[in-house]
Amino acid sequence: MNNPADPKLHFGFAVLLAMTMALGPFALDTYLPAFPAMAKDLGTEVHQIALSISVYVFTLAIGQLVAGPLSDRFGRRAVMLCGLVIFAVASFAITGIKSIEMLLALRTVQAFGAGWAIVCVPALVRDSLSGREAAKFFSLIGLIMVVAPAIAPSFGSLLLGFGWESIFLFLAIYGALLTVLMKGFVFTGEVGKAKPHAHVSVWQRYGAVFAVKPALRYMGLQAFAFSVMMLFITHSSFIYQQHFGVSPGVFALLFGANIVMMLVMNLSNRKLLNHFAPQQILRWSLSLQALGIVALLLVMSFAPHLWLFLPAMIVTVGAMGAITPNIQASYMEYFAEHGGTAAAVLGAIQFSIAGLISAGSALLPEKVIAVVLAQGVCSLLCLALIWTSKNSHKA
After folding, report:
1. Using CA atoms, how far apart are residues 203 and 210, in angstroms rounded to an integer?
2. Of 85, 84, 95, 116, which is closest to residue 42 (Cα–Cα)?
3. Which among 117, 137, 128, 24 has a CA at the least distance from the CA of 71?
4. How many Å apart are CA 42 and CA 205, to the nearest integer?
5. Region for residue 172 given its phi and psi (left: phi exceeds 0; alpha: psi -120 to 50; beta: otherwise)
6. Would you say domain 7-197 falls under CATH 3.30.300.30?
7. pTM
8. What mean pLDDT is reported for the chain?
9. Does domain 208-387 fall into CATH 1.20.1250.20?
10. What is the pLDDT of residue 199?
């Protein structure tokens, strides 16, 4: 693929990059149904197995911070393919573990490899596209990406019938297949090779990224907007199953409604980008998310019924379908150079801040309105960041 921006290759390129980004949700969600079986086989408790989620998320951020500058120095091709191989080998090794310690150690290696691969995706897009075209492309990747978290738990349940090891065998095969596809269809010709300024040190690269003051705004936007969604995901079971008393089957349907709304917002975003700049659409979508939270507060204060709460939460979470691609495009627009390092910073800040906010929310009173208020604080921070922008940098 000599020119990923070629319209004929546009969709295929997006599919492969989306498949790479899906390493996150697949490695996090596919094995969730296997927790009890894994705990039994490894002679431990389910909460110990759950610790592997935190280990994975934390190491994913570290892997991105390490690999971002390396991809600028040695090229996207070497770093991404190396990351995919590490991910595949670690996934296969997990099929033979005998203890919880081995699981945690190999999940660390697995996440490190995934971080190396994932961080190259925004950089590859920025290497080829900018402005509205980049925003459309990020939106297309997001559209395909929505499928992964939607099918991962169900697919994991299906594989569990062959033993929990089959889930990690699938991840190993997925990583190996993606390595072959990326090497054969994306990294051909000059795509992904190292560019000039390869001699610049890691600290100089990070210094150059943080020196771009307008880009810092988008780092905050990504972290706090993502936190709104993470707060919902963290407390969704409590909200729907405990507070509103729905069954597990109904909960799955209500949770899936957010994904449908994200698809709608994503498709709408792609249409709007034909007429408006990403920054303008970002202002509208963040404002829509804020209105959803206002509606949630009103519902919980005056008429706490599920049929009123549900659409407001769907709007709040679904708005992410337009928020995320426009933040990514607006942010990456500043980094024609050091794109890998910039992507690493954005990803690491997003996961670390959202992770801390999500974990800290466990200290809140066990009330739905407390969760909504926490979402409201994050949304207010987003509004302050986006509406005080002078918008001097046009995409």
Report:
1. 11
2. 95
3. 117
4. 43
5. alpha
6. no
7. 0.76
8. 84
9. yes
10. 66
Q: Which among 287, 289, 286, 312 has a CA at the least distance from the CA of 368? A: 312
What is the band of 171 on the pLDDT scale with cuts at 50, 70, 90?
very high
**The token pair that represents 186 in the structure block:** 């994306």
Question: What pLDDT, on a 0 to 100 scale, did the predictor assign at position 7?
Answer: 42
Residue with tokens 């992507």: 343
Is the pLDDT assigned to residue 46 strictly greater than 80? no
Is the distance from CB of 225 to CB of 244 less than 8 angstroms? Answer: no
| Virtual torsion, Cα 56, 58, 63, 65, nearest 10 deg | 160
Give residues with Cβ within 8 angstroms of 2, minimum separation 6.
Answer: 188, 189, 190, 191
Tokens representing 270? 């792609």
What are the residue boundaries of the structural domains of the chain, listed by start? 7-197, 208-387
Domains 7-197 and 208-387 share a fold: yes
Length of the chain: 395
pLDDT score of 352 more than 90:
no
Task: Tell me which of 48 and 318 has the higher pLDDT.
Answer: 318
Q: Which two tokens stand for residue 43?
A: 């002679």
Both tokens of 384, joined, read 């302050």
- Work out the angle at residue 124's Cα, subtended by the Cα atoms of residues 119 and 125, and round it to the nearest 5 degrees: 110
In the chain, how many H helices and how many E strands?
18, 0
Instruction: Name 211's Cβ contacts closer than 8 Å, sequence gap at least 6.
Output: none
Which is nearest to 174 in space by CA: 331, 68, 16, 309?
Answer: 16
